[in-house]
Amino acid sequence: MAVYPLPSSIILNKFSFHPFTSRFFPKPLFYRRFSTTSFSTVPQHLIYGPSLHKGHKIAHQNSDNFTRIFDITALRVPSKLCFSLESKLRGHLLNWPRIRNIVRVPGDDVEDELKDFIGDDSRDDDDETLKLLERRIYGRGEGDGEKMCEVLYRDKLARTFNSTGYVKFENLAKISRPKKKKWKREGNGRERRGNGRSDVSMVEVVEEEGSGDDEDFSGLLGDDFSGRKWSGSTRLLLLDERYANKGIEEMPEAIKAVLKEHNEEESTRLCFEIVRCKLTLFYNYWQMNEVLDVLLPQGMIVPSAFETVGHIAHLNLREEHFPYKKLIAKVVLDKNKPKIQTVANKIDVIHNDYRTMQLEVLAGNHSLVTTVVENGLYFDVDLAAVYWNSRLATERQRLLSCFTYNDVVCDVFAGVGPIAISAAKKVNYVYANDLNPNAVEYLERNCVRNKLERKIEIFNMDGRRFIDSIFASEKARPITQVVMNLPNDAVGFLDSFRGIFRNKHTDKQFTLPRIHIYGFSKVQDPEFDFHEKIRIALSEVAFEVQMHRVRLVAPGKWMLCASFDLPETVAFAK
């Protein structure tokens, strides 16, 4: 990046901060001329808060650059008063997302160990300052009494030691505590701590050179300290954007009243002043939808929602997004690292018997094999060969709450086992089935991985045949719960329950299972429509059905779950 000299009347004090931590990092002073041009496609007075359609864009950078510079005003206050003032002026502060209202001033802070030697400059008591100086030089000050001999002094220190720690042995206390993380110096000479320079935001204080008679201590204290006599540790309170470039006379009465109150109570040597600042927001500050709103053509709907399956982001783009699918995937991947490592798009609807999706990998790792953690269990999934829907996690939890320890569950369309394996942790036994051999393979693998293979019996057959065989088997345990999670076709399998006990002896006691079946409905009254489909499939009317709306999968299309006890007339029908 090119470096330009500043006009002689302006000095930019740079310092950056990270919005998610309480630490702020002073940066070296650079002299630049920022050639900026206004960047706005929307009238700025109609937008409040940070926006890529506001502020200034650095002209010499590429046109797709996302760095924006905002002119704001800040209130420089003593550090010990910054939090109390923040509470009083909360409604007049910047309050932007991911931006702290309090910012450190470079060069104004000193280490805690040096404060006792420098003294508190906010005090006007010269006697106290003299005492601090005497204690530093002679080891005692006026009124401290005669200095003890070394034996008595050591005995006195020993008596002050107790179980709470080293009360007087400050050096020993430092040795006994873990060392603090030291600043590391990178190869380019920049000092850093933790993540180092914040690539999210940065604040620059704009000061007029030669604006006062202050002494220049930059050579003594470093380049971070510019031109102003040190009067104690200070902070900047970033004021609301509507106060940008305004003086104290134009500030609201609330700010004037707070300043007047503290100026009357505190010493006049404390620093209270209005300063001009430049707030720079970098690419990493902007969220995914804000970046896509600028990159995509005006008026196009921004795809901001996607399903997460392990490390895979599953998009469902519209046809209008297809020319920009690579660009959208790159932004999604960039804004969700490291959690997201692969971005894929569904290119066709689910229309095969195995319920697998045709996915196109748009960015990142091309592997569609991932691991999903749900309900404390681990599920290996291959999205290219099996079906998985993370948006049904809440519904699966609700369904599991209906089961008890004594239940025996029959999962007709188990998939890789999100319901069957989760139920195995709670119920007595589970019978799981799926037509897809790949799903059955992953189901067996997930059972072993979660150490539940002894409580699950797995089948690979058609759902209708599975229902007939499991209820006709003499060795199978009495089934109390049946789950049929195949919304498109599950109702078509209900006729398999007609006459499942017809060959049993009527004098025996049978447990009629409770069936939980899922389906879709696009009519105005989806519950009534789904209820009628169930009655028609069972050829029975007189039974109670409990309906639950799972989620709205598309405009006007509901996914529902119906729960009912299998009617006795249906179970013993001929």
Automatic annotation (TrEMBL):
Biological classification of the source: Eukaryota, Viridiplantae, Streptophyta, Embryophyta, Tracheophyta
PROSITE patterns reported in the protein's UniProt record: SAM_MT_TRM5_TYW2 (PS51684)
Comp. bias intervals (Basic and acidic residues): 185-196
Ranges for domain SAM-dependent methyltransferase TRM5/TYW2-type: 306-568
Principal location: mitochondrion
UniProt region (Disordered), positions on chain: 180-199
Molecular function per GO: tRNA (guanine(37)-N1)-methyltransferase activity
Record's protein name: tRNA (guanine(37)-N1)-methyltransferase
A Pfam cross-reference name: TYW2_N_2
Residue positions binding S-adenosyl-L-methionine: R396, D434, L435, D462, G463, N485
Subunit and interaction comment: Monomer.
EC number: 2.1.1.228
InterPro entries: MeTrfase_TRM5/TYW2, SAM-dependent_MTases_sf, TRM5-TYW2-like_MTfase, TRM5/TYW2-like_N, tRNA_Gua_MeTrfase_euk
HAMAP family: TRM5 (MF_03152)
EC class of the enzyme, as a word: transferase
Catalytic activity: guanosine(37) in tRNA + S-adenosyl-L-methionine = N(1)-methylguanosine(37) in tRNA + S-adenosyl-L-homocysteine + H(+)
GO cellular component: mitochondrial matrix; nucleus
Species whose genome carries this gene: Capsicum baccatum (Peruvian pepper)
